[in-house]
Amino acid sequence: MKDLASASREELLEIIAAQQAQIALLVGRVAQLEEELRRFRKDGKREAPAWVKPHSPKKEKQARKPRAQGSGRRREEPDEIREHALEQCPKCGRKLSGGWRHRGHQVIEIVLPQVRVIEHVAIGRWCGVCQERRLPTLEASTLGVQGRRRFRASVQSLVATLHGAFRVPIKQIKRLLSALWGLRISDGEIVELWDGVAEAGRLAEQAIQEAVRGSPVVCLDETGWRQNGQNGWLWTFAPAKLRYFLFRKNPFGAGSGGGAGSGVQRQSGLRFLRRLQPIAQ
Question: Terminus-to-terminus CA distance in the chain, angstroms?
Fold first, then answer.
């Protein structure tokens, strides 16, 4: 830009003429933008351009229907109620008494069961008439154990639930019993507890087998299964209200070999359905 202080009259006139042309251009652009803005507005509110798809008409808001059941968090039945109140006014120090329930806040905690070691002592007594020593018979039901085990049914059911229902490995069960209750238990004892549950459930398993065998309609399904790095077949026998599972390494049963097509598998499943042998442990 030229220095206006040293510019001649002709140069100043050229600058003024150029500025007037630029001002006229800007005034026209402002008028154009204002016209577009007026087209987008109606009654003081902005309207969408013509190329914008109009929205669906707004529906009138209706009153919310009351729900049959609230979705709020259900409060538990408290086992203990602890009341908290101020004994005196924090401002003037006056003694306070009485009061009303202002609000409640529930806190849930888990109380771990304690380990109890019960020693059963057999007391021997002498019969003066028979001149013999008499000792009580300590049955497994009296001791609350299965067989000659040292862990009661409560420990056995806990181990079975963790390993069977929640698929917790034996090593982790051992660590859990040691960390929470200080129980020192070997891997072999955990396996024996699990085997004891399976042994106690054989009667229930036989009852399920008889119910499946006596059902008028049984749904039979065979599925490929892989467990502990070994392939096998999982058979499912499902009446209306029961399910019985049977695992074999091949569709012919334990001890037989060879491949099998779907027809052979189906015939093998029908034979299993007729026999329903217990699952080999």
Answer: 100
